Amino acid sequence: MIQITVERKKDLLHSIELSGHAESGPYGYDLVCAAVSGVSIGAVNAVFELTDTDIDVKQGGEGGYLKITFPSLYIENELEKAQLLLEGMLVSLKSIEMEYGEFIQIQET
């Protein structure tokens, strides 16, 4: 199962951590894993391309892992853009969870 943990501080995203595999299909044909990967990597790439926010990204490992953390120092306007892009990512991930809840779980703290 893919576990997603969203941490907020003062109503702003602070970090988003994704780990695990959906195992909804054979290796290379797992549509849930592909959807989550596409949505999350696309959003991270959009933040880097469209904003000057220096988010910290850690990824890799056999267990399917991605962690996005916002910096403590930021330019307010750029933070707003990055927040919006990653909130959009969460909307997409929640849509996947609604349809395939047995393979993905989102927890907000």
Automatic annotation (TrEMBL):
The alphabetized UniProt keywords are:
Hydrolase, Protease, Ribosome biogenesis, Thiol protease
Keyword Protease in annotation? yes
InterPro entries named among the record's database cross-references:
Peptidase_Prp, Peptidase_Prp_sf
Instruction: Give the transmembrane ranges.
Output: none
Instruction: Name a biological process GO annotation.
Output: proteolysis
Keyword Protease listed: yes
Q: Name one GO molecular function term.
A: cysteine-type peptidase activity
Give the family, as the similarity comment puts it: Belongs to the Prp family.
The protein here is known as: Ribosomal processing cysteine protease Prp
Q: Which gene name does the record give?
A: ysxB
